[in-house]
Amino acid sequence: MLFRSRDFFSNNIPFNLLRDYGASISGPVIKNRTFYSGVFEGFNQRSDSQLNMNLASAAMRGGDFSQLQNSTGNLLTIKDPLTGVPFHGNVIPTSRLNATALKIQSVFFPAPNYGAPNSTVGNFRGIVKGYQRREQVDFRVDHQLSSKNALFTRVTMLRMPSYGAAGLPALGLTVQRRQNRNGVISDTHTFRPNLLNEFRFGLTRDYNPRGLNVNGGFGTAMVQELGLTNFPANLPNIPAVTQVTISGYQGLSHLAYDIPAFMVYQGSDNLSWIRGRHTMKVGAEIRYYYSAKYPASGSGVDPSQAVPNPYGTLGFTGQFTGNGYADFVMGLPYSSIMSTSGYVRDHRTSSIWAGFVQDEFKASPRLTVNFGMRYEVETPATEKQGRLSNFNPVTGQLVVPTQASMAFLDSLFVGTTNCPVTGLK
Predict the structure, then answer these.
(1) Tell me: the pLDDT tens digits for 55-108?
(2) In which element (H, E) is residue 201 found?
(3) How many CB atoms lie under 10 A from the CB of residue 122?
(4) C-alpha separations of 281 from 62, 189, 190, 392 in Å
(5) What is the bridge-based pairing of β-strands 313-316 and 243-246?
(6) Residue 131 and residue 257 in contact, taking contact as beta carbons nearer than 8 Å
(7) Other Cβ atoms closer than 10 A to 257
(8) Which of 43, 252, 289, 377 is a Cys-bridge partner for 244, taking CB atoms 3.0 to 4.6 Å apart?
(9) How far apart are CA 113 and CA 309, in angstroms?
């Protein structure tokens, strides 16, 4: 707090409080044979985030664009998309305003609270309180089986929940509840002073559910409240809303909802042999990957998170009236994107099989030569129910793994002139 400075766009010094603490313990379990060590570290931070947004003026929210100016200070003309003629007085008649757009505006877009009444740049400022925490535990046990054989095992557990600004105040906070688990066991056996073998097996699991931190009020209930229609029958009820982009103005978007889980199993065995000026190693490794998440396809894909938003995305660019917000209040999107393929969680697996040989040759006291070879085989990813597909540009066909996979393909796409036949491989 002592050296925290005021943000350029803030009237006050934002609040920030950080705590970092920890503890450790270690000691013998069996004298000269078994030892343990443990470490705990905690970190938490409470801080303010500054909101600085470009919102429509109070008059524009009701269709009055009579005071809207362009970057050169001249009046920006709002034209009637039906006739191409400017609206009288640059005011859109109330009867031409779209009820759903006005509802979205009322629910999500706050009125300006900063600057001149007709300003549309940086005219909303606010503070959102965020919070993040990190707790990590590491525990290790070493055991000497004999003078030639040693074991160790280590477990790491990490928890990192964080809450931050979602964007518009009505969206509340976004939340990520990351958890990570990691474990390894190792056996080292010394056959001779110059011949040693190490076997290791490890497991890593990462779980990071994320999205809006809300309890009800969003999802399908919000779709009905806003009056949005033409969604597929299997629309999922998740904490998300239809995303809206408006050229030149603050849009409606948020951290994409997802429950990604990743696991890696890894086993390796390495043999080291020292003979004369040579240190030779030979070994093998197997890695097995598993992931479960919502795939990066469909509508409203968030580039930072690469998952779809099943409620779609509406884009307003000013194509029809000459101003993005005027297009919005009239309900005239330039683009409207929505997925019809559902919102399913896929489960993918793949593996890597590898082996290597290596020799470190000490040619002279001043020259050491390393050479070797590693060979890897990486299997292609497979999905639990065979829902992966690809497109063959040579044959113009979709390639799917099994005949049963055909049931997951969108009937609106398969069978069209662009994709006349689905290929099977």
Answers:
(1) 999 999 999 999 998 777 788 899 999 999 999 999 999 999 999 999 999 999
(2) strand 195-207
(3) 14
(4) 76, 15, 14, 43
(5) parallel
(6) no
(7) 25
(8) 252
(9) 31
In angstroms, how far apart are the furthest CA atoms of the chain? 95
In the chain, % helix, strand, coil (3-state, to 5) comes to: 10, 50, 40
**CA 29 – CA 21 distance, rounded (Å):** 27
Spatial neighbors of 170 by CB under 8 A, at least 6 apart, are 107, 108, 109, 110
CA dist 189 and 113 (Å) reads 71
**DSSP class per residue in 230-285:** ---TT----S---EEEETTEEEE--PPPB--EEEEEEEEEEEEEEETTEEEEEEEE
| Alpha carbon distance 318, 315 (integer Å) | 10
Q: Using the structure block, give the residue that is written with the tokens 């994709």.
A: 419
Residue found under tokens 């629309």: 235
Identify the residue whose tokens are 């849009």. 251
Cut 0.90: pTM above it: no
- Report the relative pairing of strands 422-424 and 397-400 from DSSP bridges: parallel
- As to burial, measured by CB atoms within 10 angstroms (0-12 exposed, 13-18 middle, 19+ buried), residue 107 is middle
